[in-house]
Amino acid sequence: MRKFWKRIKMVFTIRKFGPFLFDFFKSDTVPLKKKLLSVGFFAGYLLLPFDAIPDFFTFFGLVDDVGILLLILQQIIKLAPDSLREKHRIGLE
């Protein structure tokens, strides 16, 4: 239940992720392997058409997609070095 509330909290800080992702992929401190893994997360999300809740259920289908994107962002945050997380004030709390 605690992870669920962390992900809900992440929705309200979504504006931080653009600059964070830009710095993550631009940074020399992040190994290439971690960058490729992150790209793989996004590619897997886009290429695999499976949804837990189909998108024709308008609201609930979108909530499912937002949840998956937040899960991917959370994994990328885990891959980022501490200095980058501190710079953007993004933590795993």
Question: Can you characterise this structure?
Answer:
The chain has one domain. It contains 5 helices and no strands. The mean pLDDT is 82.
Lay out the secondary structure.
Blueprint: H1 2-11, H2 17-26, H3 32-47, H4 58-79, H5 82-87
Helix pairs in contact: 3-4
Keywords:
0% strand; mainly alpha; globular; 93 residues; 69% helix
- Please report the total strand number as a whole number: 0
Instruction: State the oligomer.
Output: single chain
User: Hey, roughly how much beta strand do the residues contain?
Assistant: under 5%
| Overall morphology | globular
Terminus-to-terminus distance: 14 Å
User: What sequence of helices (H) and strands (E) makes up the elements?
Assistant: HHHHH
Total of domains: 1
Overall pLDDT level: 82
Number of contiguous helices: 5
Rg of Cα set: 14 Å
Q: State the secondary-structure class.
A: mainly alpha
The poorly predicted ranges are none
How helix-rich are the residues, as a percent range?
Answer: 55-70%
Largest sheet: none
